[in-house]
Amino acid sequence: MRMVDIIAKKRNGDTLTEQEISFFIKEYMKENIPDYQVSALMMAIYYQGMTQEETASLTKNMVESGDIIDLSPIKGHKVDKHSTGGVGDKTTFIVGPLVAAAAIPVAKMSGRGLGHTGGTIDKLESIPGFKVELTNQQFIDNVNKFKLSVVGQTGNLAPADKKLYALRDVTATVDSIPLIASSIMSKKIASGADSIVLDVKTGSGAFMKSLQDSKRLAEEMVTIGNQLDRQTVAVISDMNQPLGYEIGNANEVKEAVEVLQGKRIEDLRELAIELAAHMTILAGVYQDYSEATQSLESLIDNGDALKCFMDFIEAQGGDITVIQDLSQLPGSSYHMEVKADQGGYIHEMEADEIGVAAMHLGAGRATKDDAINHGVGITLQKKIGDYVDHGDTLAILNSDQEDVEQIISIVKNAYTIKPEKATRQKMIYEVIK
């Protein structure tokens, strides 16, 4: 079998066999196939696409290129959640405790962030003392005891994906739906969960800007998961504006805790309950969506989900006094207001630009070596559908820099204000099963 023949076959729009895909991945990992040939194949896939069977085969071979986490010592049906990323996305801190409070084990491995704000692990490190590195036995013991543990990614999960992604990044082949789907699903399947719920974002702050593309990606990932014996559900959710009102690391932990305390931050609460509902149904705890959502609402309202969050934080060394008094979380030196230049209704928000502004404040990383400032970020005061007068505060920058005029401009320009009334955004567009 020759790589050049595989490239030519895909270039011509033909379907690759399981044997051809397996050969390509295995020989590339052995460094018997050069980057320039793999780049040519990635470009052929970019233009010709892949069938669902090809994409599932690619995913399976990427999974088998490295470690597969064994979660069998954890009792019960393990369900994982994955988000395709967005601005202000802190649902893990609500969903995890909610599902744990329903007695379903959540054994989650998360990464650090690159871009707008930190990843789940960076945000948890806002809590003094919190340990993201546990031994495998500690991780398993914590899930068995508290039903929830979140640690940094360990082991050598889907190393073929890492190699392919680095190549795609420099050859303009990142935004291919089969390649995105196989990349995401290879890591999720290697992480060992029995079932997977995907939060696929759509809109200005999402990787997929159009609902059509988001739906295609969701359908592709659900098909892969189901073909590889993982029950998978995808929720397509809105990212035309940041989720909730806080962007930043400690800011987002604080807002998530406030939701667990019962504060009605409607879009954040709605999405968290939606994701948790599908996780509980996949685990077989609830039989239908209505029963699941009602039960999860009560787990917030009666404090059970908050208790699960506190137990989880304490079990991993975190100082729970900062959860009891959120003002003790890391903060910033300066608080600058972004004012509206005109009156009217907010029609649009460029969510990705607001995320970039947060990164400039130090809440995210431009490169993987950048340090995260846990105490800085942005607190939104107005969102789509709200009315503002000239001079009203649109957002507050929480900064350790005194001169943030350029960042103020970025945030101000992210808002589109018009005289006529604006329709508030829908949170959930579709559920793909």
UniProtKB/TrEMBL annotation:
Domain Pyrimidine nucleoside phosphorylase C-terminal per the UniProt entry, residue ranges: 345-418
SMART domains linked: PYNP_C (SM00941)
Entry's transmembrane regions: none
Cofactor: K(+)
Catalytic activity: thymidine + phosphate = 2-deoxy-alpha-D-ribose 1-phosphate + thymine; 2'-deoxyuridine + phosphate = 2-deoxy-alpha-D-ribose 1-phosphate + uracil; uridine + phosphate = alpha-D-ribose 1-phosphate + uracil
Subunit structure: Homodimer.
Protein's recorded name: Pyrimidine-nucleoside phosphorylase
Organism: Gracilibacillus thailandensis
Lineage: Bacteria, Bacillati, Bacillota, Bacilli, Bacillales
